Amino acid sequence: MQHNVTLPPWCLTALVISACGLPLAVLATQLVMGQLGPDPAERLMQGTGEWALRGLALVLLASPLAQAGWRGVFRYRRVLGVSVFVYVSVHLLLFAQVYVGWSGALLIEELKERPYVLVGFSAWASLVPLALTSSDSARRRLGRRWRQLHRLIYPATLLAWLHLLWLARSDVGEAVVYGLIFAVLLGWRLRRYRQRAR
Ligand code: HEM
Predict the structure, then answer these.
(1) Contact partners, residue 175, CB within 8 Å, separation at least 6
(2) Atom of ligand 1 nearest to the CA of 46
(3) How many domains does the chain have?
(4) Segments forming the whole domain that contains residue 155
(5) Residue 129's closest CA among 138, 119, 137?
(6) 159: CA distance to ligand 1 center in Å?
(7) For residue 4, is it within any domain?
């Protein structure tokens, strides 16, 4: 006799939410246990930034996967997208608290020294309208405009990548790898838009 074990949708959603929260929980635990090395703030900035980039790549991967037949992944795109926003917001709050201590004067100094922060901030700002309209009711209310608004994910991705490239200075290996991943994912979309337009 064959047993078919399928998890209910709420169970899978709970698993995806837990998976999205896990890296943040690990970082927080390492912080509390003093396992983040000599510069915990820098490690936290790197950790939250890295996971936000990985999440962005996964959000962009949802459409190609759905077209390849894995339609179920669409159900988890919102959880992933909101998680990216949470990680970038923690990244931003850490910057405000640890790097500039909420001081306008220190912020100006930091921006002179690290102009790539402005690019990162623009990426975060492009994600704000997406996070604010992520609910089902906002989607229904906005109708066609919801899709147009959510195209902000493309400039947000480009700005996030530029932020990474700019701060990498001499070691651009990681930025090149993400650049290739994003180029493939955005190229796939561009080709699809062109096919639809024809
Ligand atoms: C979508 C938005 C963003 C993404 C994906 C992102 C990603 C990253 C990543 C991956 C790193 C670590 C790079 C490395 O050292 O290997 C990083 C570093 C940094 N980010 Fe962002 N970031 C974003 C937005 C922001 C914002 C909004 C700010 C502040 C306003 C910011 C400030 C910084 C700073 C100061 C560092 C350097 C940390 C250090 O090495 O001391 N970023 N970011």
Answers:
(1) 161, 164, 165, 168
(2) 12
(3) 1
(4) 9-197
(5) 138
(6) 11
(7) no
pLDDT digits (tens, 9 = 90+) for 93-112: 999 999 999 999 999 999 99
Domain assignment present for residue 183? The answer is yes
Instruction: State which ligand 1 atom lies nearest to the alpha carbon of 99.
Output: 35
Residues 6+ apart with CB under 8 A from 83: 20, 21, 55
Domain contains 140: yes
pLDDT in tens, 59-96: 999 999 999 999 888 889 999 999 999 999 999 999 99
Residue 93 CA, ligand 1 centroid: distance in Å: 11
- CA-nearest of 166, 161, 155, 163 to 178 is 161
Q: What residue ranges line ligand 1, CB within 6 angstroms?
A: 42, 45-46, 49-50, 52-53, 88, 91-92, 95, 99, 114, 117, 120-121, 123-124, 160, 163-164, 167, 174
Spacing, Cα 193 to ligand 1 middle (Å): 31
Is residue 1 scored above 60 in pLDDT? no
